[in-house]
Design a protein that fits this description.
Blueprint: E1 2-5, H1 14-20, E2 27-35, H2 37-46, H3 50-62, E3 70-72, E4 78-81, E5 85-91, E6 97-101, H4 108-123, E7 137-142, E8 164-167, E9 171-173, E10 176-186, H5 192-207
Parallel strand pairs: 5-7, 7-8
Antiparallel strand pairs: 1-4, 2-10, 3-4, 5-6, 8-10, 9-10
Helix pairs in contact: 3-5
Length: 210
């Protein structure tokens, strides 16, 4: 459930919103590398999934940036959600993929436990047959085979303004492990500085692992 509707007339982004809202392709994308060294070391020491660890820390960062919680309603009003949740692609054994919805929780252990059960349930379901996108979701994709430098999403419609995040291949750069991250936002709802805020929080969340 969203916590408030945005009054466009008094919103600081009124002019930006009106400028971008009717663009045929209003989404913009930024790719950068994130140092995930500590997350990799932490996951290994705890014998837990690195992907789920990064997904949790990323989802936490999304919830720390207001722009990542803004969505359009069906009648094109703008609302802000109290909490947003990750929905990610999972690889099937036949090299196709399926979607898996996760519930963000402030507790990492609770999130990881629920995430593993969600993964098992999703892999038992026929792919893409029961897709129920929710406005409060963040869409994640994973390309662990490629250290990409750009990314283009498939878009069938303008949609509700869901942020889209992609994790790429983790590689070593000297003593560091780095991962490319793609972030796509709707320009009527957010700007480049909001992606910068998300990356900053993501990196801080990794750094603060203990």
């Amino acid at each position: 459930m969203y916590i408030k509707a945005i009054n466009i007339e008094t919103w600081k982004r009124k002019n930006h919103f009106n400028f971008y809202k009717n663009f045929s392709d209003p989404y913009f994308n930024v790719c950068c590398q994130v140092d995930v060294t500590k997350a990799a070391e932490y996951s290994k020491s705890k014998h837990q999934s690195l992907f789920f660890t990064l997904l949790y820390l990323s989802a936490k960062a999304c919830n720390q940036v207001d722009a990542f919680k803004l969505r359009f309603t069906e009648d094109k009003q703008v609302v802000e959600y109290q909490c947003v949740h990750p929905s990610a692609t999972l690889l099937n054994q036949d090299d196709t993929f399926t979607f898996c919805d996760f519930d963000y929780q402030e507790s990492m252990p609770a999130f990881l436990k629920a995430a593993e059960q969600a993964r098992l349930n999703a892999l038992k379901t026929e792919s893409l047959t029961h897709v129920t996108n929710k406005a409060e979701q963040i869409f994640y994709s994973v390309l662990p085979w490629l250290s990409f430098t750009s990314y283009k999403h498939a878009n069938s419609e303008i949609g509700l303004g869901h942020p889209k995040i992609v994790f790429g291949k983790i590689t070593r750069q000297g003593a560091r492990s780095v991962m490319p991250v793609s972030v796509e936002l709707h320009h009527a709802l957010a700007d480049g500085i909001d992606i910068a805020k998300y990356i900053q929080h993501f990196e801080e969340n990794i750094k603060n692992l203990a």
